Amino acid sequence: MATPPHLASQLAVNVLDAHSLLAAFGVFGVGVVLFAETGLLIGFFLPGDSLLFTAGLLCTGAADRGLHLSLGPLLVAAALGALAGSQCGFLIGRKAGGALLARTRSAKLREGAQRAEELLDRYGHAKAIVLARFVPVVRTVLNPMAGALGVPARTFTLWQVIGGLVWSLGLTLGGYALGSSIPNVDKYLLPVIALIVLVSLIPLAAEVLRSRRAAKEAP
After folding, report:
1. Would 13 be classed as within a structural domain?
2. Among 94, 128, 132, 202, which is most buried by a count of CB atoms within 10 Å?
3. Does the reported pTM lie above 0.85?
4. For residues 37 and 186, what is the distance between their CA atoms, to the nearest angstrom?
């Protein structure tokens, strides 16, 4: 029995490729992927940054790949996925403590957990929760780490909403703005996405430099 073309395309999806995910699942896939990346430890490898930027770009029709998304539903799906996922990760951390992270065999996850704990210790709850959104893997593990370390639920919710909206809507609108202003931007998609990912790390890099400067100036 032959497999329907639309089902075959979904079965053949490459979860590491933003365009493949969008072609298979559209706007709905954005919400699901962001929920998995920010709420479930198994989603740490998913391409959240590039997915958001590429999805925003595809809303302009500038990328000539036969795929067009609607900006309004995309923004809603991105925000809901990012916020619900983060809150879910926090609740998992509160229930399971550090047991899940302690049992993981992934060196990348363990490294991310260590960096997440360092962020919380060094910058405090509010700043760490916002900055973590812009660091792959760390944005996955900081949520359960915050729950396990007893960060107050009200504090976590407030700052994860702020950070989540800035990250998800900012990258999506960045892709949309670039696609609207630069003709044939699709030709430069890969280097542009790499640049966007680097730019997304600027808040963390700036905070690290500021902290180091303050440490040197301290008596």
Report:
1. no
2. 132
3. no
4. 26
Number of compact structural domains in the chain: 1
Question: 4 in a domain, yes or no?
Answer: no
Picking from 9-13, 47-51, 108-112, 140-144, which range would have the lowest pLDDT averaged per residue?
A: 9-13
- Parent domain of 137: 20-196
Buried b (16+ CB within 10 A) or exposed e, 77-89: bbbbbbbbbbbbb
Residue 29 lies in a domain: yes
Contacts (Cβ under 8 Å, ≥6 apart) of 23: 9, 13, 65, 67
Mean pLDDT over the full length of the chain: 80
In this structure, is residue 7 part of a structural domain? Answer: no
Give the span between the Cα atoms of 6 and 144, in whole angstroms.
Answer: 36
